Amino acid sequence: MACAAFALGEVALRLYWLAGGRWGYTACDRTALADPTGGCGADRVHTLPFWAGWGAVGVGVALAIIVGCAVSFPGRAVAAASWAASALLLVVAFPLHLLFEVPAALTGRPSDWRDLGARLALVAGGVLFAGLAHTSGPRRGPAPAGYQPVPRWTRRWAYAAVALPVVGWAVPHGLWVLGVPFGISEQQLDEIQLNLSTETGLAITLVPPLVGLLVLGLVQRWGQQFPRWVPGLGGRRVPRLLAVIPAGVVALALVTYGVLSVAVFVDQLRTGHLPWSEVWEGWATSATLLVFLGWGVSLGVTTTGYALTTRPRRPSEPATSLPGSIRPRSER
Fold it and tell me: How many domains does the chain have?
């Protein structure tokens, strides 16, 4: 029902825009440095872009059809279609933008609430369709009881996923906030300090690595069982999708952003719009592109290890550990 409500709600909103209404619509260029609080003249837009209007209506109808098939004809094909719908919604939502824009908005930076609201709605839709895919697929047995140690390779990738945003993002941004031109020119440093208040700079510097610490839950006991000090939930098993879906969403967003950014970067070098002299002068900003890509890959591999370790097994499937897993001492 929730997936159907999302799909029909999106269709209704786009039809409202096509009929001339503009509530919730934004005409802001997300890459422009302008005040987005007024929607950038959304009320003066007479013709909607295709993907904001009829294209989105078509996608919404397709999503509704998937929901109907999931109710009437559950199986692998419908589960695959639901996973594809979830991935599409999450890629379009680009939740990595939210990771930086929401803290900046909370600290007082002008933000486009229409764009943020639309992205949050798409993220919610992606999560809902991921849940639909999980329930539409083949039935498995119950999840493994107790704590299941993850493989060693999963732990190594998890530590990389924690270290990358600290070393590659928090350290350089923290230095820039403090006025240190680490890996950038004095002009770039002046532009950064001009556009960012101290509160906003601290928010976008500290929030990503702090959120990144949650990846440790994918390789620790508290990622599978709630700690005993949690009221009402202590000792109970953590719902598998509660860990897999958010981590998968962020990993997909990071990899997408990294790949697209590197592609744009290479194209600018190829066409001469970005000279190598500027790349060397501001090497720290260019390196963040690889940081995002590596962060996404390491988080994605860690999530895969967690998902494989905690996956429900069919009754005929033996409950054996994955190769390279670390068994607790009580089982040795």
Answer: 2
